[in-house]
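Example complex used in Figure S2.
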Amino acid sequence: MIVSKLKPWAEIEGYIAGDRAVFVLGCNGCAQSSGTGGSEQVAKMKVQIEAAGKKVSGTSVVDFLCQETLVASRLRPRAEELGSSDSIIVMTCGIGVQTVASVAGKACHPACDTVYMGGARGEWPAGVRCQECGECVLEFTGGICPLSACSKSLLSGACGGASAGKCELDKEKPCGWELIYNRLKSLNQLNKLSSFVPPKDHNKRMAYARAINTSFWNLENTNGGAGR
Amino acid sequence: MTLQEALKKGKFVITAEIAPPKGTDVADVIEIGKVLRHLVNAINVTDQQSSTMRLGSMAVCVLLQKLGADPIYQLTCRDRNRIALQSDLLSAHVLGLRNVLALTGDLPELGDHYQAKQVYDIDSVHLLQAIAKLNGGFDMAGSELKGRTDLFPGAVANPGADTEAAYELQLIKFEKKVNAGAKFFQTQALFDVGTLDRFMKRVSRFNVPVFAGIVPLKSAGMARFMNKNIPGIHVPEDLIQHMARADDKEITGIRIAGNLIRQFKGYCQGVHIMAIGWEKKVPAILNAAGL
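Predicted assembly (519 residues):
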């Protein structure tokens, strides 16, 4: 399971400051179990957004937001509501946000931070990765994770080492920041590239050795906890 | 005249770059330092460029300073976390170094210790912000320093980025670096004035001096190799042909570099010569440029 926690409301409110109407999307997989993106949390989010004077054009809870085909098929009948939204608030892990962002053609706001458990690709084979950094930055990068997509995991933009859109590490691999640029351009959100993203709190990201010695990790990742 | 003096006086700045040796034999570095110390305003010392393990930039900078040269300490985020980077900056200050070039750094996987763990704890923009903080008397964690630094930070840019996305990303990062305190920029090697002109038109509004990168061509093969393998480098075909036809490759390469400097002079605030083994020929290049 992938563990997520809800971002503080002030952060989410900042993300939607320029939006009039938003669509709220939850996930019945890990996010429901985490208590961050099930029907209950989606309903609460709707109330909070409306209290902030915004319109909620629709809500939906999909079984697994990490499954691209499933997400696309579930969103198709909601095209009208999505069309009238300025953006989508996605209440799930970093994989789900990236998956929705890749199929929705809309700005996607991450409502959650993903808790470090060793790095994951979702419950379903996903085309994207989440480093579970605990400080989701997908808001600023068009729903493409720079930690995963950039070979150097740069937060402030491209390094200058790309040729014809490919990373110098591997001529087959696209430059992650060029993907981010092109996505933001298609969303008419290039101004997001000027956002300053501070250095990571690596205590959240590299806590593996410590995390695996907690009973929480044991319960999540072993059959009833190691050594029992 | 040092880098900061030259900038204050509005002179056309000349910087050159040298690489520390792989090992402890510094005879060659000292010899180059003696050749360049009064000819250029400052000498960049690379930080294990191409992720190849070498003698440290800080040590070579100190040696150059003893010779009377003004060194530019290059510092990458590739091998050090924020604790080591800040500590090294304090050390550099105490040893008398002032100019620092903040870089992200090449990928370790492309170097001679490809098994190494890459760090990139922070990136070049964060590093510039850290320098600004240390200069203000505080560290990144907000703790007060007993004695602040007095560092003069610079940064790099790649005006030859080849796609719209890569080019615009360079410009956005340029602005971020300016906002983070960069006082000068050195660019990837350029081989045509058009690329420089196009870039300067976009960045001149920031009023931060830009030194255009110069790499003297040694052969047509070298030019083709760089075109194929080094992001941002585009040697035009006519220059490649010129090198291919030349009887004396050395004189021709020096003349081409000199000509480029003459052409660039009207567009930017200085040049940065990366001679890659031809450091002792920098005087000839400057002579060819009429400087």
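The mean pLDDT of chain A is 91. The two ends of chain A are 20 Å apart (CA to CA).
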